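Figure 2 data, in text form.
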Amino acid sequence: MAPYESDDNTNEDLRTGRRKAARYVVPVAVLGVAAATIGLVPAFAGSGDPDLPDITAQQLIEKIAASDVQQLSGTVKISTDLGLPNLGGGMGGGGDDSGSSADPTSKLLELASGTHTLRVASDGEDKQKLSLLDKAAEYSVIHNGDEVWAYDSASNEAYHMKDSSGAAEKGTKGKADDVPATPGELAEEALKAADDTTSVTVDGTAQVAGRDAYKLLIKPKTSGSTVGAISIAVDSKTGLPLKFTLTPASGGAAVIDAGFTKVDFSKPAASTFDFSPPKGTKVTEGDEAKAEGPADRAQPKGGEDLGEEFQGLNVIGEGWSSIAQFDTGGEGMPSESSDAGDAGRFLDSLGDHVTGKFGSGTVFSTRLVNALITDDGKVYAGAVTKDALVKAANAAK
């Protein structure tokens, strides 16, 4: 099927479709954490592209917006390659003195690097389950009504709290929603960028987990972004995003690759969402963890808000080339010539030293996001190239 370029005159319609698209995300967040990564596979799989009726980009966005999938189960994978070391260290670390090893807030950060296998299930807004599998161990988060449990089989620890936040009524929005985890959430974030700086096309069809799907292709029109393209496979029947792939402008493997490997849209068994901690399990109550957790200990002395450490957050530019700029209110990174000595040399080895009208600083890079920290404590960060950061810093002087 040939691509269909979106009409530039329909940008307002695209924006309307984006706003509506917020409704389609399957509500599988627990603890206010968007914890349901619905799968990732290394490439589109299938025995040939299905022959589906032609559809425009606008019609496909509207199909996503109209999707209302509430029940599903499946086996999934998540693969993320930012060029960073693995953040998880595997399951079964047994926790530490700072809290429970079963706390989802930190446990699910493992999904930010490497490849992981998961099982997911959802039955409406108040019943979800996510299980992260690792060899013989399993980590599960279960949301059933007003009960939320997380269990780490390797350490035999559980984390429990009451869901009194009304997450379901609020569309499962929680404190970790700014870190999209599901193909649906990732697609929603990508669609927010579908403005005049974006090319949105239908790029043929594919089969994902045995389902016929359209491929929506999103590409920046402007230069300077590290994003090459985003491909979203959309189920032709339900409108649910089945797969999300973000490739960098620099080429190579995908930075994020997300999609179902198996999916079933029938109602999961009620027992799927039942949980009682096994005998001998160490149980941590959520309120206790909040009172004693590392987040509280990390607050600056004197009780001031951590956000006050960053002065005047600004956004430079728009769309794909936007850059966040703020002032740390202090000095920049220690240099080799500073009193920091070895620390300065170590940090210099991790980044690239740059100079310009702004002075000098260090650029720290991943395969997607780059950050410039100037010697006088200013930070410029975004999914843009190193040259774009230096240009922004020069213009700000």
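Caption note: The first strand starts at residue 4 and ends at 5.
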